[in-house]
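User: Sequence recovery, please. Input:
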């Protein structure tokens, strides 16, 4: 039996130290600890896939919490089923001792483990949806207060009105006008339309 640990952090600037420290206490070989720095929305993760290919029946996988495995309710359940039922791999969730497939291999133990897994997977996905909703509400409230998002709009070049006039009189092409202002064609056109609308 080989022991593995899987770590996932949601972005490249998040630290994996807490998860790594937990696995160090379990004496998991460093070569058997796999790390992905990306979202848990799906299981298309390089390190996770590499780990799963290496694992054999009766191997043991540790994860710190259920949301490290993933956040999509249906995919967590499907992946859990594949690993435990089809591949014969045991899984231990450190933050939830009830989720330890080594215990209670009888029908009642499996039943309880499956119920806990479904509840926790649902909670993880529900929390992700709540976070997204709070972010959207926060952005909407900020916009209502006049907060602007994205890069600040570049000011019009000093020669913009003159070049705009020449372009509208067909003395120069759109490409020539944009080049003269040092901006992409789409940017020049957008600024031209904005200028024209403000003059109406």
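Assistant: Recovered sequence (200 residues):
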């Amino acid at each position: 039996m080989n022991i593995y640990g899987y770590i996932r952090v949601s972005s490249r600037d998040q630290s994996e130290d807490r998860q790594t420290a937990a696995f160090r206490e379990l004496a998991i070989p460093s070569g058997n600890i796999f790390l992905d720095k990306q979202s848990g929305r799906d299981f298309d993760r390089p390190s996770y896939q590499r780990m799963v290919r290496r694992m054999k029946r009766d191997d043991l996988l540790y994860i710190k919490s259920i949301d490290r495995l993933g956040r999509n309710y249906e995919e967590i359940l499907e992946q859990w089923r594949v690993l435990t039922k089809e591949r014969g791999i045991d899984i231990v969730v450190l933050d939830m001792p009830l989720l330890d497939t080594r215990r209670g291999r009888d029908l009642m133990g499996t039943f309880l483990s499956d119920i806990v897994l479904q509840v926790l997977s649902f909670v993880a996905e529900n929390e992700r949806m709540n976070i997204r909703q709070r972010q959207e509400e926060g952005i909407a409230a900020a916009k209502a207060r006049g907060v602007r998002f994205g890069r600040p709009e570049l000011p019009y070049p000093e020669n913009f009105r003159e070049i705009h006039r020449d372009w509208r009189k067909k003395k120069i092409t759109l490409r020539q006008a944009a080049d003269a202002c040092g901006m992409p064609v789409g940017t020049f056109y957008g600024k031209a339309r904005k200028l024209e609308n403000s003059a109406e």
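The first strand starts at residue 3 and ends at 9.
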